[in-house]
């Protein structure tokens, strides 16, 4: 049992936890979605995004066809209003992809039926409102979703800095 625990700690991409409460995007169906996604920090019912912190998303995906390019499509759905995560939405996702089998870089184009791991970290800005939201995360090849999921989240206040007198 200990070797498995050590292996999971050393290889996050290989032992993605089912803690992240991910759901399929409307009209989409991706196999074993919840087992493929980990967002940190995240709990069993929603992810807690603290202002002034950095959130990391890691997930596995297996394209069904050749993927020529990958673009991030990430936004916060707040009361039905989609607000893009600046600096993430529209950016090239290919540099964030590695081969699942050995962790080596996997530049686009990506091959069908091969497993890949995507990892990205992004700041939770101090100016974000403190609200409940759904994070929509998709990787697009042109207009086609290669993978798409949504996660319930809440933006919480950052830690107060100690003042010197």
From TrEMBL:
Classification via SMART domains: ML
InterPro entries, alphabetized: Ig_E-set, ML_dom, NPC2-like
Signal peptide extent: 1-18
Domain MD-2-related lipid-recognition positions: 22-153
Record-linked Pfam families: E1_DerP2_DerF2 (PF02221)
Cell compartment(s), UniProt: Secreted
One Gene Ontology cellular component annotation held by this UniProt entry: extracellular region
GO BP, sorted A to Z: sterol transport
Keywords recorded for this protein, A-Z: Secreted, Signal
Domain of life: Eukaryota
PROSITE patterns named among the record's database cross-references: PROKAR_LIPOPROTEIN
Family: Belongs to the NPC2 family.
Name of the protein in its database record: MD-2-related lipid-recognition domain-containing protein
Organism: Pieris macdunnoughi
């Amino acid at each position: 049992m200990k070797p498995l625990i050590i292996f999971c700690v050393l290889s996050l991409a290989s032992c993605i936890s089912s803690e992240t409460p991910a759901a399929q995007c409307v009209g989409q169906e991706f196999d074993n979605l919840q087992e493929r996604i980990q967002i940190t920090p995240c709990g069993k019912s929603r992810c807690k995004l603290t202002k002034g912190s950095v959130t990391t998303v890691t997930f596995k995906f297996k394209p069904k066809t050749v993927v020529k390019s990958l673009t991030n499509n990430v936004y916060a759905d707040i009361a039905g209003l989609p607000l893009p995560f600046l600096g993430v939405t529209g950016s090239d996702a290919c540099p964030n992809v590695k081969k699942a089998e050995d962790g080596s870089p996997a530049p686009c184009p990506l091959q069908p039926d091969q497993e890949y791991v995507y990892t990205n970290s992004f700041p939770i800005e101090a100016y974000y409102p403190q609200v409940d939201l759904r994070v929509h995360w998709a990787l697009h090849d042109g207009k086609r979703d290669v993978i798409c999921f949504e996660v319930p989240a809440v933006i919480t206040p950052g830690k107060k800095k100690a003042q010197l007198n």
